[in-house]
Write a structure and sequence with these properties.
The protein folds into two domains: 181 residues, MFS general substrate transporter like domains (Growth Hormone, Chain: A), CATH 1.20.1250; 185 residues, MFS general substrate transporter like domains (Growth Hormone, Chain: A, Up-down Bundle). Helices cover 79% and strands 0% of the residues.
């Protein structure tokens, strides 16, 4: 990888991002273990996860504005401490009989706020730490940390919860948030935009948020790519999260396909991120969007029982394609968007791409029951192919550049 990411500053940023990723992915699994040992009920788990999602989505636009108004490092620090405080509230709620549910819901919402606030600020810190030339390898390294977190975080959290107990594991998650808050470097950040020193009011917040939305709209490749990404996540991820476990159980006799497919997806994602640390395709936008369309293979591979290797291969290619898209996507956003608006544009990115995912998860199960799984899988597969293809139409989508 490029020398820019071998610096002490980037290593510290990577460690902080990895810690926040591990903490984010571990929490739902620890709460799941809490249901198994009867510390909380299944209903309380559902409430907590919903509250966390709401907190995450509410924090994104707010943190985008704050990170562009002040030092992004301060936002990372504050957001990490907020997330750690949310975990502490959950711990207190587990031991409180009278207000346990209220504290659990409040803690999950506060933790979600911290998680959501971290994302735009971390994304906006990358170009400050590594510079323009190091963006692609840096984003590849950050993507690898995310994939490692998704693979290791739940497994490690489950093992700790079963061995040490839920409370001890939640404390470990809070400590990870402290690592996220204190370990990243303190780079010299660009001067704040005019008016950033003024007191933030509801009116000025609205104006600055609209500025971020307008900046996103100035880049046709970004609007088209974000629309494609949102559709693929909302539909493709819903298939792998809702229909894949059912297909694995009914057509392949248990959890074999689910476990093997999830592992193959993660391996593909790690490979894709590693490839993009070095590979710079000439038409990077078209390459990235074409790779994103590979997710459409997954729904079609689940329509009818076939050799188990086929859906596993489809999931591997989907993971590969997602990272072949993500790395140049983040790099282009950091390169093309002015620094003083980058956090707000990043918050728009995360708000749409992740914000609509719960809608897809909520709708796909009832639609499968009403229409049958085959029509739903065909619709999802076609959408995952068509959306990236349509996103290639704007001229700037070819290279992910606005010039």
């Amino acid at each position: 990888m490029a020398g820019e990411i071998r610096t002490r500053a980037f290593i510290r940023l990577w460690l902080g991002g990895t810690a926040s990723g591990l903490a984010t992915w571990a929490l739902p699994f620890v709460l799941g273990i809490a249901v198994l040992d009867r510390s909380i009920t299944a209903a309380q788990l559902g409430i907590a996860l919903a509250a966390r999602t709401v907190g995450f989505l509410v924090a994104l636009p707010i943190s985008g504005v704050l990170a562009d108004r002040s030092a992004r490092r301060k936002v990372v620090w504050g957001a990490s401490l907020i997330a750690a405080a949310g975990i502490a509230l959950i711990v207190i709620g587990l031991g409180h009989s009278a207000f346990g549910t209220a504290l659990l819901m409040l803690g999950a919402a506060v933790a979600g706020i911290g998680q959501g606030a971290c994302r735009p600020a971390y994304n906006a810190l990358v170009p400050i730490v590594v510079g323009v030339d190091g963006l692609q390898p840096a984003n590849a390294a950050m993507s690898i940390s995310v994939r490692v977190a998704t693979l290791v975080g739940p497994t490690l959290a489950t093992a700790l919860a079963l061995g040490l107990g839920v409370w001890a594991t939640l404390i470990a998650i809070a400590l990870l948030w402290l690592v996220s808050g204190f370990v990243p470097p303190h780079p010299v950040e660009p001067g704040r935009p005019d008016g950033a020193d003024a007191r933030l009011t509801l009116k000025s917040f609205h104006q600055e948020l609209i500025e971020g939305v307008r900046e996103a709209g100035r880049h046709p490749w970004f609007v088209a790519g974000l629309a494609a990404l949102t559709i693929v996540i909302a539909l493709g991820y819903s298939v792998t999260n809702v229909i894949l476990p059912i297909v694995s159980r009914d057509d392949y006799g248990g959890a074999v396909l689910l476990v093997a497919g999830t592992t193959a997806y993660t391996i593909g994602a790690l490979l894709g991120a590693a490839v993009m640390a070095y590979w710079r395709p000439r038409n990077q936008g078209w390459t990235a969007l074409g790779a994103l369309a590979l997710y459409g293979l997954v729904p079609f591979s689940l329509i009818a029982p076939i050799h188990i290797a086929i859906p596993i291969a489809a999931l591997f290619l989907a993971g590969l394609g997602v990272q072949l898209f993500n790395v140049p996507w983040f790099s282009a956003t950091q390169r093309e968007v002015p620094s003083d608006k980058l956090a707000r544009v990043s918050s728009v990115d995360f708000l749409f791409s992740y914000g609509l995912a719960p809608l897809g998860l909520a709708l796909i199960a009832p639609l499968s029951q009403a229409l049958g799984p085959t029509p739903v899988l065909v619709i999802c597969g076609c959408a995952c192919f068509v959306a990236p293809a349509l996103a290639m139409l704007p001229k700037s989508s070819r290279t992910f550049t606005s010039a």
